[in-house]
Every structure is written in C-alpha cells, then in structure tokens.
Amino acid sequence: MSIESLSALDRSTLRERSLEALRSAILSGRYRPGDHLGEVELAGSLGVSRGTVREALRHLQQEGLVTAGTRGMLRVNSLTAIEVRELFRVRAALEGLAVREIVASPRRAATAATLRAALERLSDEDEPAARIEADLGFHLLLCRLSGNSMLVEAWQRLEGRMRVAILDGSAAQAPMMARDRHAPIVDAIERGDADAAVRVVDEHMTAAAEHFAEATAAS
Amino acid sequence: MSIESLSALDRSTLRERSLEALRSAILSGRYRPGDHLGEVELAGSLGVSRGTVREALRHLQQEGLVTAGTRGMLRVNSLTAIEVRELFRVRAALEGLAVREIVASPRRAATAATLRAALERLSDEDEPAARIEADLGFHLLLCRLSGNSMLVEAWQRLEGRMRVAILDGSAAQAPMMARDRHAPIVDAIERGDADAAVRVVDEHMTAAAEHFAEATAAS
DNA sequence: ACGAGGGGCACTGTCGACAGTCGCCACGTC
DNA sequence: GACGTGGCGACTGTCGACAGTGCCCCTCGT
What we know:
The structure is a homodimer of 219-residue chains.
Chain A: H1 14-27, H2 39-46, H3 50-63, E1 66-68, E2 74-76, H4 81-104, H5 108-124, H6 128-145, H7 149-168, H8 179-191, H9 194-218
Antiparallel strand pairs in A: 1-2
Helix pairs in contact in A: 1-3, 2-3, 4-6, 4-7, 4-9, 5-6, 5-8, 6-7, 8-9
The structure holds a DNA duplex (30 and 30 nucleotides).
C-alpha cells in the first residue's frame, strides 16, 4: 500500500490514471531505483486489475523509467554515470538540430521571443521539483518550436531516462537549471548564429552531463 | 484469417512471437497503411488471446508501425511527406553524432575496417527486402560502433517509423542503398575528418529524405 | 555439520468473459 | 422525402482465474 488509490472523478481510462500514478510514484522517489515493481502489489495499491497495471508498466518500460530484470520482473531503472554522459550527448545532438531548424526558419524572431518569455519561468521557481519541470519544459519547448514533430517525439522518448538521471543526482542540481545557463542559447538564436547556438547547446549539455554523472557516481 | 498461426516450436513467449508475426505482417504489406487492426480478429488469426495480441499491438504502437485512431482503435501507420523529411533530419543528427564519436575514438581505425567490411554486404543483395535490411543494418552498425548505447536506443526507436517510410516508397529505392552511397562515409571516418563525415552523412540523409518523401507523396 | 531433495511461495504468462461505448442501419413520424 | 430514434453489432476497457516456473527454505539422510 505505497501509493494512494485512484480517484474516480475524471473520465480518462484506468490505464492512463494508473500510468500517471505509477510515474509520479517513481519520480517522487516513493520507489527507489532497483526496487521491484510487482504487478499484484501495484494492482492492489491502485485498486485496478493486474492487466491494467501491466499495461501501464509496459508503457513505463518504454519510457525508460522501468527496466526488465530476471524472468520478466520489472524494477525501477537507474543509469550508470557512463549512460548519463551518453544520454546528454544524444540530447545535445537532438537539441542542436532543434536550434538549427529554428535559426533557419523564417519565423526565427517570433520563436526567439517565445523562448525568451519561457526563460523567465526558470528563475521564478524555487522548489527543486518545479525547477526540474521548468528546465525540461524549456528544452521541450525548444524542440517543439523547431516544428519537427519527429524530433519532438524522439526527445520525449528520452525524457523518461533523463528524469531518472536527474532523480539520481537530485542534490544541488539547481545551478544547472538557472536562467543564465539557458539565456546564451536564446541569445545565439536571436542573433541568427546557428553555429554558435549549437556550440552553446553543446556546452550546456556537456556541463549538465558531468554534473549529473558525478552525482550518479557518488550515490 | 490473414496471418498464419504461430508455431509452438520455440521457447519464446507468445507475446514475442505475436509481436514478430504482426510486425512482419505489416512490413510485408499484408496489412496496408490505414488498415484497422482489430484485437479480436488478430487474436483469432494468431491463435492467442486478446490480451496477448493487445500487448504486442501496444509495442508496435511504441515502435511507430501502428497508430491510435478514434476510441483507441489501432491502424497501420503511414507518414506524410513532411514527416518523412523530419524523420531523416533526426536520423542525420543521430548518425552525425555517431560518426563524430567514432572519429574521436582511439579505436577509429578498427571501427573503419569493420564498417568497410559491412559495406561489402550492400552490393551483394539483389532482392529489395534484403537491400533494405542491409542498408538499415549498416546504419545501425554505425550507431553501435559509436559505443553510445543511448544513441543506439534512440536510433532503434526511430527504426519502425523508418520502415514505414520505406514501405510507402518502396519503388525504386535501390539506388539509395547502393554501396557507393555509403562508401564516402567510411572514407571520411578513415581519414579522421569528422566534419567531412558529418557533412557526408547529412547529404546522404537529405538525398534519402527527398527520395522517400517524393515516393510518399506520389502514393 | 553439510549437501541433496522436495515442497511451498511469489512471481509473471495467458486466457476467457463481462461491461461500457460508439457507429450504423432500419424504422417510424412529420 | 427528411429527420429523429431505437435497437444492433463491433469494438475496446477491465477483470478474475488458472497455469507454469524459478527461488528459497526446510527437511532428511549421511
């Protein structure tokens, strides 16, 4: 009985609600990396059948929050320091493409303005969880504004793993998500300097990678 | 009764076999893009229960071979010409990262040799399906040899969508997969010229994108 | 004391059935 | 003839139960 039962107020499917509940249970740290996620236990906690929670778990597996162990048993995923570095390099490639497409677009000025507005939200948040949301929200917005739907999808499929990495190294990650860490990206986009923008994104990602990789290694 | 029943010879799970059967049924064109994939019909065809085929379908959905329509109904996916172009740009970014990492690696020479060997297989194949496999195999190898596991995963999550795109424009795609289209990539890697390698990959992807996008638009 | 064997336990894999919902078609009404 | 309406069929959502399979611990024999 680790997670609260599902409320029956909204009209979404039980699977969706179970998925959400499980995701937030993992992301909030209620389940630690490596913890076994038994279908029967979760079904009991959530008040749904095993089949339903099973589907939610499979979805989380695709997201990378959950990984398969022996005999199909699922457990909360955790990343090695090496994987964290790899992950951020892939992110850099993806977001590098995003800024390139944004700069090349005729709507560049409007896009830059949107991004600058989003930048503001990064300083407003104090609570760690809110900071994480603001940071990921900014980067997702960056991908969305590229107008490349496949890019957005690819990025989102990385998001789960990113959250795992952040979860592991949640201590003192605040500086990485500060406003002035992201401002140079917008600056370069505004100037229309694609190469500089890519370089800045790359540096941002490299720094973040080291930050979280060290935190992972330390834990 | 469109697909043959599952053989009970091997020891893999029914879900895995169903998944494989459905995937190959879609990829072989037995189901056309837009076709509705009913759980009951498929369960009957495959000789498994609805729950089992359901899980296989959900997996295919994540792979991008299948997409959700109204009221959760699933149908065979198809890509617009725009999405095909987007897809190949993402691929270019990913494989660009791959060649960069390969060039930067101390094992560059050995990697280049491996790739050159793989290059040979591209000319051997005559049948379209085999050519597709050889081509995708080469690019997957490229990602694998980068040593970046997250990159490989990201690329593989794009693979299903790629196959859909290829499926749509299967006519006369042969030249795109020829050996000399890929050789320049290996050449640049061998020379250790990362920028040139990235540029070559980019051009290769752009050309392929146009090729398949046009074929998609025509169909 | 220590190793082999066996039985229970805790899982997941798979299945068949019931329930709710949406679209469609025929029918009756104005 | 057009339109509302009621039943019907086809789907997916969800559930509870049975089956198979390792793992662990307990027991028994030496």
